[in-house]
Amino acid sequence: MSTAYSSALDDDVHGAPVPVEPEIRRLDGVVREASVPPLAKPVRRGSLADLPFDNASAAPDAVVLSRKTADGRWRDVTAGQFAAQVTAVAKGLIAEGLVPGDRIAVMARTIYEWTVLDFAAWAAGLVTVPVYPTSSVFQARWILHDSGAVALVTETAGQAAALGPELPHLPDLRHVWTAEKGHVEALAQAGAHIPDHEVEVRRGMLVPDTLATLVYTSGTTGRPKGCALTHGNFFAEVDNAIELLYPVFKARTSEEASVLLFLPMSHVFGRMVAVACVRARVRLGHAPSLSAEDLLPDLASFRPTCLLAIPYMLEKVFNTARAKAEAGGRLATFDRAASVARRYGEAVEARQTGTGPGPSRPLKTARAFYDPLVYRRIRNAMGGRVRYAICGGSPLGRRLASFYAGAGIEIFEGYGLTETTGASTVTPPLKPRLGTVGWPLPGTRIRIAADGEILVGGEHVLRGYWDPQAGGVVPAAPDGWLPTGDLGELDDGGYLTITGRKKELIITAGGKSVAPAPLENWLRAHPLISQVMVLGDNRPYITALITLDPAGITHWRRMNGRHPVPPRLIADDEELRAILQRAIDEANRMLSRPESIRRFTILPVDFTEEAGHLTPSMKLRRDQILRDFAQEVEGLYADRGWTAGNQ
Predict the structure, then answer these.
(1) What is the rounded CA–CA span in Å between residue 598 and residue 496?
(2) Beta-carbon-side half-sphere exposure of residue 151 (alpha carbons within 13 Å)
(3) Region of 113 on the Ramachandran plot (φ > 0 left; ψ -120 to 50 alpha; else beta)
(4) CA spacing 20 to 30 A to 7: which of 83, 143, 435, 592?
(5) 12 or 125: whose pLDDT is higher?
(6) Helices 361-370, 331-352: crossing angle, 10 deg rounding
(7) pLDDT single digits (tens) 293-307
(8) What is the CATH number of domain 48-206+251-283?
(9) What is the pLDDT of residue 640?
């Protein structure tokens, strides 16, 4: 048993050991720092490129991936087969003249070829550069130019064609290959004459401090920055995550552990989990589409035991299930079941944290009663075998976290950045504190600065930012602490709560500081709301722009006998406004008067990535939204007797 775990057991969670609590440091009675020692030994030699070959040597017949075929079935890929594919593609890259240190960009959705290319590029000594497939031509050109990529692999011919006019402006880019045209397979054939020994030599040149990838930030506050992540950064992240999240990566039952990855591999979260699955030999599948008509069949056929998710997705799963129950005349049953699930999840949390006895017998009976009626339906929509979900991107919130826990899906909520190779905090098994983003990941230090900013230290923190003008990588945390730009608080148990974003902090005309994120996250969980932007900087009071969820509005219309109307007219519907006002009133009860939303407007269009209002990771581009909806914003502050003194 690892020294970082105590011997105390909880018979409700597979007899698993309880993790040791973080070391806490206080200043003036306030928790300012929390740290957890690493669970995994640091990797001092080799690189990520070795993982497929280590697996093939240790367990050549073990199934490590599954690849979806044209007929919708999944074909298993063994460790031996995967290592052979990686070798073949790596030799193709070598045959095409790519040399160690060259950057190769990948512009694709979450497809099998992404993982093959990642490991093949590393085996050839290259550096991978993800480009979001939804990026505009200008954004893609910037990343390709800034990184100095010499090769690009697109998923579709359309992506390659769109970038065609930009090629004269990209003098370093010598190769453009397209996955749907079979170019990845062609690379494997092109390298057939290269001896395997050449790949072994290149792998042997790599060490943990070697640059593995340049992952560009989403650029919410300016041009995207290239985060230089090393092989050692990934090892520090994934090895400790595997040890901490043993229910996900080290299943102790006869049920095979598996993860269906559908979040973008262009984002560090998806890449990190893909690497962790290969490292732990957990069966990994790729689902390229997030649309319900594509994803639901993939979940049903793959049947994962764990999902990666962002809060937005879990909110929509809950809201969709509730809407179906309402349409079927079972709304009262669903709402009672949801209440039971929340109370059950909170009772389990209380027992595990030593603050309560756990679920009572009547509560256990009620949960068992509602399981086949409600909870099992939700689990079945996710494939039927899902027991865990790793959630990140923004806070999930206590209401949904307790619901899913009570419904039989344990949520491991986390917080992190591209700069930290993924998670810096994670909910520890057996020690949840719902509504927080958990403890520091083992090997991580979290500090709260005097102004509330979260600082992170650890071996998973990036080497620096890519700056070709400065000759390569510029250190990002020279003193060992990375400023995240996020605001947060540590409680007495070392659990972190995110309270907002430093650059997004609103200062009203009356001098009141308001973090918009908690309000936005709360309201976004409403079934009729898609996106919310809270504003009020240098204004007399707080207001909000609200966009409507199409599926939620369609369901609301059907249940209320409403005919379809243009978006402009539905935005002016008095009954709809009253429903949203009640949601805002509920959110306002958590706040003081100066922090509460006084007025709101419903926009006739949603915020989209295509319109420049959202980043690929669903974050608001606030400046762009303010520019595009300036008239609506001014309307919220039209003179109606409000002055700063009214606050």
Answers:
(1) 29
(2) 24
(3) alpha
(4) 435
(5) 125
(6) 140
(7) 889 899 999 999 999
(8) 3.40.50.12780
(9) 47
